[in-house]
Write a structure and sequence with these properties.
The chain has about 525 residues and is an alpha+beta fold. It contains 17 helices and 23 strands. Helix 2 runs antiparallel to helix 4, helix 2 runs parallel beside helix 5 and helix 10 runs parallel beside helix 11. The two termini are about 45 Å apart.
């Protein structure tokens, strides 16, 4: 009966949201998502806005330049202003603006808002239940850039792999062209009439790569990897066949980044977000793919309850015999902070656990940001807080420029799972955002052992990542606004959370099945050695 009431309430809320979306459409918001006509001054103002944001508000730009070798946003500003002023189409300007944004936001959350998130945020802003500090009309207008960006193709590859060897390039697979067999190992002599090295120089200077401020040396591993635009269909290639013949062939492009040569090196994920497997009589395994089910995750929590029920029932079937439980969050991009607490922390506790976190923000960002927006961003990390107090900034962070907070939290048991063994959490560089939060909290609470490699970072404690709107174009990006200090004293967004047991790189399991999991190098390490 409870499920029936829940489904009924969910349907009612959904109908209300659909109705409100329709009303917003009637009010004319959809009309605000048409293509803006930008002047050179509009485009220039956007680049200058990003530079000011980096200077005054970014908690990471100087740290990125110091620790990660990120190019200087100040030194690059004149170049990108020139790119912006010369851009002839919105597609071109989007590539300019997003490339400069990638320089000032090289760590942490940094991305263009997608269309669904913008639309639901516009609805939430209209209802007064969400606040990014951006009006509903501006949020809706930003969907133009989301749609435009999703239609831009910047990466492409031939219908065969390209292999570099002894300074040359060769086909990595057999291929057929106009009835002629092109065997694996055929040499790529020329691309569009140029030698391979000259072609690489050409794409760096004349395609979307010219807006990229980072090293472009990675292109030499792929050779034909750049999509030159909607009218670009492929490459004219001269091939040296193993029998000595030279064949001129048109090689059609395939959109997207080239797939790895060893396809099995990518895990075939299970259909469900949460998968539970008994690996041995004494070892259980739980795979969590993600902690987010789209913008409505803040309203509809059914996916969290479903996963929690699966874990609970799996451990109940184990009847307490598991001595080890492996929770696998490798390549988990994160999502909803609440998922971590409700599914992966509280149900494992025997009693209350208290811990501290320290987060820092730029003082000017706190002063200049709309208070209602700050309150909204605080809400996402407001759970289980006992105390928040301002503390002295650590060495290297000027007191007149930074504010640091120590947040004391206490988490309590909640419908405890039937498990009393040792907990092991698998992490890697793809464990990010809320998945990094989980790894960080495992370390702070000493609930388990982290195994693998450093996470990708992106965790938080005081303020969720905010949003910025470029004044000329109306593009809306999400940005990192705080730094979190790890239990080891490092900046989480730069270095991630370090595992207790660091393991060498290894291919992930072929699939989330018992057979393939038992063959996984890291899992075997936990079962046999830890």
């Amino acid at each position: 009966m409870r499920n029936g009431h829940y489904i009924g309430r969910t349907r009612n809320v959904f109908r209300v949201l659909v109705l409100l979306t329709a009303l917003l459409t009637v009010f004319g918001l959809v009309g605000y998502s048409c293509a803006p006509r930008l002047t050179a001054e509009d485009r220039r103002s956007d680049i200058e806005f990003l530079a000011r944001w980096a200077r005054d508000y970014s908690p990471l730009v100087e740290l990125n330049e110091k620790h990660k070798g990120t190019p200087s946003y100040e030194a690059l500003k004149p170049r990108y202003v020139e790119f912006a002023e010369r851009a002839e189409k919105n597609e071109e300007f989007y590539l300019v603006a997003s490339s400069y944004f990638n320089v000032i936001s090289a760590s942490g959350h940094a991305y263009l808002f997608d269309e669904d998130l913008l639309k639901w945020s516009a609805v939430g802003q209209f209802l007064g239940i969400a606040d990014w500090g951006i009006s509903s009309r501006q949020l809706w207008a930003g969907t133009y850039w989301s749609r435009l960006s999703s239609g831009i193709s910047t990466r492409a590859h031939p219908p065969f792999h390209v292999m570099g060897k002894d300074g040359g390039y060769f086909t990595g697979d057999d291929w057929q062209y106009d009835g002629t067999a092109i065997p694996k190992g055929s040499e790529i002599l020329k691309v569009n009439g140029m030698t391979c090295s000259r072609y690489l120089d050409f794409i760096k200077a004349n395609t979307s790569l010219k807006y990229d401020a980072y090293s472009k040396d990675w292109t030499k591993y792929f050779l034909m990897v750049i999509d030159e635009g909607p009218s670009f269909q492929g490459w004219q290639v001269d091939l040296g066949l193993p029998d000595g013949r030279v064949l001129a062939a048109f090689v059609p492009k395939v959109k997207g980044f080239p797939a790895p040569i060893d396809d099995w090196a990518r895990t075939v994920e299970a259909r469900e977000n949460c998968t539970c497997v008994e690996l041995t009589d004494s070892v259980g395994y739980v795979r969590i793919k993600g902690m987010w089910h789209g913008p409505l995750s803040y309203v509809f929590k059914g996916y969290m309850k479903k996963d929690r029920k699966m874990i609970r029932e799996f451990l109940a079937r184990g009847q307490g015999r598991y001595k080890k439980l492996i929770i696998d969050i490798r390549n988990n991009g994160g999502g909803f902070f609440e998922y971590v607490y409700e599914n992966l922390l509280c149900p494992f506790l025997d009693g209350p656990v208290t811990f501290n976190q320290v987060a820092g923000l730029r003082k000017k960002y706190l002063q200049d940001t709309k208070q209602s927006a700050l309150q909204e961003l605080k809400k996402q990390y407001a759970r289980y807080i006992l105390e928040t107090r301002q503390v002295k900034p650590p060495n290297g962070f000027a007191e007149n420029d930074w504010v640091f907070y120590e947040i004391t939290r206490q988490i309590r048991p909640s419908e405890r799972y039937n498990f009393n063994g040792k907990l092991y959490v698998l992490i890697n560089g793809g464990s990010w955002s809320a998945a990094d939060d989980y790894a960080d909290l495992i370390k702070r609470t000493r609930m388990g052992t982290l195994v693998g490699q450093n996470t990708g970072g992106g965790g938080g404690a005081y303020l969720a990542p905010g949003a910025i709107r470029l004044p000329g174009s109306g593009m809306i990006f999400r940005v990192e606004t705080e730094i979190l200090l790890t239990p080891d004293g490092n900046v989480d967004e730069l270095f991630g959370t370090e595992p207790h047991v660091k393991l060498p790189s290894a291919d992930p399991p072929k699939s989330i099945t018992k057979e393939d999991l038992l063959d996984d190098t890291w899992i075997k390490k936990i079962i046999n050695d830890l």
